[in-house]
Write a structure and sequence with these properties.
The protein is of the alpha/beta class. Helix content is about 40%, strand content about 20%. The protein is built from 8 helices and 10 strands. The chain has a 6-stranded parallel beta sheet with strand order 1-10-7-4-2-3, sandwiched between helices. The protein starts with a helix and ends in a 6-residue tail after the last strand.
């Protein structure tokens, strides 16, 4: 059997799972947009962010969003982009951008894990990302690839501990045990550069923060 046919069948199976999760998310109060792949996700995201009411757009440092490369087009359209990951920013400027993200028109991020029951699981270092995902921005948009799907909250926490946490610590050049070993060292409280300081389990969006989730039948980010 050709690999293209195998890929087609795997994509079909993934879509069935995402469709089921999408229904659970909608029942919890999230708006869901199904995207067949990253190209469709980029198109859907640009359509959302191009709305005239979205003039200030915050980015939570998500690799899932970054690979869609929407920022140049948005900047060219005159949008004000709040990206604290800009390497030219000083520490003070970075902190100011993070605070501004809390009151932007729309905040764009991803989630570390999404359970089959529609629960968002995240662990953060500064807390700015999870804070903006919960309350403050006028609207939140989350881009979630099929690779983020896990059976339950426990599996979500394990995914972060054994994959997303260590790889992100390595990517950010943090001096943590996991950045050396590749697996969680349970260093909370004992490691000044730990990126695992706040854990959030979100079962429903805030009543005052409309949240749209792009469910993407593609592997995105960590």
């Amino acid at each position: 059997m050709e690999q293209s046919k195998v890929n087609e069948m795997l994509a079909w199976a993934s879509q069935k799972k995402l469709d089921a999760v999408g229904k659970k998310l909608e029942a919890r109060g999230f708006k869901v947009i199904a995207c067949a792949d990253r190209t469709a996700a980029r198109s859907a995201l640009m359509k959302l962010l191009a709305a005239p009411e979205h003039q200030t757009i915050g980015f939570g440092g998500s690799m899932s969003v970054g690979v869609l490369e929407v920022e140049p087009e948005l900047a060219a359209a005159g949008k004000t982009l709040l990206n604290h990951g800009n390497p030219s920013l000083s520490f003070e400027e970075k902190m100011a951008v993070m605070r501004a993200q809390l009151t932007c028109d729309v905040f764009v991020a991803s989630t570390n894990a999404l359970t089959e029951d529609g629960i968002l699981v995240n662990i953060d270092g500064n807390g700015n990302r999870v804070a903006a995902m919960i309350f403050g921005p006028k609207q939140v948009v989350l881009v979630v690839g099929r690779n983020k799907l896990v059976p339950d909250v426990h599996a979500g926490l394990e995914r972060i501990a054994q994959l997303a946490g260590p790889v992100n610590a390595y990517r950010l050049n943090r001096k943590t045990p996991c950045a050396t070993t590749g697996s969680c060292g349970h260093c909370s409280g004992a490691c000044p550069e730990s990126i695992c300081r706040m854990t959030t389990i979100v079962k429903q969006p805030s009543a005052n923060t409309p949240t749209t989730i792009l469910l993407v039948n593609d592997d995105l980010g960590l």
